[in-house]
Amino acid sequence: MQTSIYLATSLDGFIARADGAIDWLPSGDDPGEDYGYQAFFASVDVLVMGRATYDLVRGFATWPYDDKPVVVLTQRPLTIPAELAHSVTVMAGAPQELVERLAARGLRHAYIDGGQTIQRFLAAGLIQRMILTRVPVLLGHGLPLFGSLPAERWWQHVATRSYANGLVQSEYVATVASGNL
Asked: Could you tell me which Gene3D superfamilies the record lists for this protein (predicted)?
């Protein structure tokens, strides 16, 4: 199963303020530019997110994932509202176990979202593709995208795109071998 992340960070590597707020992200006022998100989202057949990300997204005016299957990873009890019960499920477990369970369901490409969830999947060596968009702001502190890893991981640069509003998006794929550039 392929696993990918598509995420925005501040220049200093934070994905949210310390309290989880993402009010610093661009508002998406340009309806003609989605930064490749729709094409990426169409390529995945399941979204795996952590509980904090789910709680944040539930606060949005509308559920942004339509009928795409969503798996919320949590150890705490979580009741899924009736209007989402057809597409949202709750799971717990180690990343490798979760990938195996999803693959057994016939799913082929998972979008991994949420800081702690991404860090756990990276630490397990289970992310193959990263699309990272840098927002030109320094937050100074907040929730970091990356945490400690058991070993270094090397990535191959695929492409970088820059946008008129200052956003810079880079795509990477995991390399099999590590070493110097």
From this structure: Dihydrofolate Reductase, subunit A (3.40.430.10)
